[in-house]
Amino acid sequence: MRRLRSALRRTTSTMLAAAAGAGLLTAATVATAPAAQAADVCTGTASVYGVLADGRLTFSSIKPAVGDLTRVRVGPDLGFEPKAMATLNFNTVLVTSTAGALYRVDVRTNDETLALANAPVRIADGGWTHDKLAYDGHGHLYGTTPSGLLLRYNVTQAKPAGSQHINTRVEIGTGFMLKTLTASGDDRLTATSADGKLLEYVITGSNWKRNDLKAEGWSAFDQLVSPGGGLYFGRVAATGAMYWYKDANPTDGKGSDIDYNLNDPVNTDGWSQKLLSAQPGTFSCKPAAGTVDGTDIAAVRAMGRDMMGAHDASWDNATQWSCLDNLWQRESGWRYWADNPSSDAYGIPQALPGSKMAVAGSDWKTNPATQITWGLQYIDGRYGSPCAAWNFWQSHNWY
Questions:
Q1: What is the DSSP letter of 268?
Q2: What does pTM read for this prediction?
Q3: Torsion region of 3: left, alpha or beta (phi above 0 gives left; psi -120 to 50 gives alpha)
Q4: Average pLDDT for the chain
């Protein structure tokens, strides 16, 4: 437990130092702009519940744009030995026991504390022998049994009280001998196998289709969770590290466009929970509503001014705008194609590497709005305001 708390307190300045700010670029580096492409803009957060080995509940909050752990809270002992869990919503978690019972855990959390609103409610006395659970956020609860049977249930209430609210048991299929399981969208499951495959299952009625996203490389994870939008978090059991990944197109059935962030994990250790579950549907991507001509720098700057004010009302003033404008003029000249010749820094905010911006949209290479979205989130999470970031830049020539 001490490691979990210290992971939050420990500074991440070493990792974040390389996240943005590579210095002023030369004209040669920004001479040619690649063709812009329309894609998605992504927003949201990640809320992850967990259970420690001693039975205590935990809550963690992660900023997807930069993969930063922003909050960890530890609550009371559940009072029974848990086996599997699925988060229904921000204050409701379903947990099975090793004895086969199903409990509803009502949570109350804020910036300071994590508590139970009441004692865990036992909504089924037996029959819940699932070793894994996942809720898709759209009314379907999935579970696997130790024998590899995949089951689906309808959930009709935000706080189910029994079989009247969790019903219509459907056997989807057998052979689901999985190491991890999470719901990544409406009737979409993502899983890993013991031999390191990253798998996707698309469920239609009682039928299913499997997509092999990755053939290897995922065997180290004993927990995989997703808040939606193609975002995944994987916990390495051996070290307690948490890594994050972004699938640019989570519905194409392919894993070739998954961005890895191995040089910038959420944490390198500290994730000691025996179970983890993300609240579904808290991170989403949608088609961009159009943007300005990215080669029209004046128009891009004007858009940046508007987006800055919309991001945080307290920034909506001439002082903060002057700081942001100075910062990104020096970093990139507000050019979305600015590519630093001595590093992998890219774009208007000079994200390092540029692929970090994929969490804000799959068009991060060509859409100034996507880059500005990520850059504002980065500044907010790392410095708190554009002027704080600009002040740091003036002393260090990076931010």
A1: S
A2: 0.72
A3: alpha
A4: 88
Angle (CA) 270 239 4, round 5°: 5
What does the pLDDT look like over 318-371, one tens digit per residue? 999 999 999 999 999 999 999 888 888 999 999 988 988 988 888 888 889 899
Which of 353, 350, 240 has its CA nearest to residue 7? 240
Would you call 167 helix, strand, or coil by DSSP? strand
d(CA 331, CA 56): 46
The CA distance from 44 to 285, in Å, is 9
Q: What is the pLDDT of residues 198-257, one digit of tens each?
A: 999 999 998 999 999 999 999 999 999 999 999 999 999 999 999 999 998 888 899 998
- The gap from C-alpha 179 to its chain's centroid, in whole angstroms, comes to 20
Asked if 351 contacts 38 with a C-beta cutoff of 8 angstroms, the reply is no
Task: Report the DSSP beta bridge partners of residue 140.
Answer: 154
Residue 10 tokens read as 């420990």
Token pair of 19, please? 């996240």
How distant, in Å, are the alpha carbons of 34, 297, 324 from that of 346?
A: 13, 16, 17
Distance CA 304, CA 334 (A): 9
Cβ atoms within 10 Å of 66's Cβ, excluding its own: 26
C-alpha triplet 245, 247, 253: angle, nearest 5°: 135
Cα angle 13, 17, 22; round to 5: 170
Q: Can you tell me which residue has the tokens 């804000």?
A: 360
pLDDT digits (tens, 9 = 90+) for 23-37: 444 333 444 555 555
Work out the percent of the chain whose per-residue pLDDT is above 90: 68
Helix, strand, coil percentages for the chain (3-state, nearest 5): 20, 35, 45
328: which residues sit within 8 A by CB, 6+ positions away?
Answer: 304, 334, 348, 349, 375
Q: Which helix (H) or strand (E) holds 299?
A: helix 297-311
Give the tokens for residue 46. 């990640």
Residue 117 CA, chain-centre distance (Å), reads 26
d(CA 20, CA 105): 40
Which pLDDT score, from 0 to 100, does residue 329 have? 93
Six token digits for residue 260: 């890895």
- Cβ neighbourhood burial of 349 (10 Å; 0-12, 13-18, 19+): buried
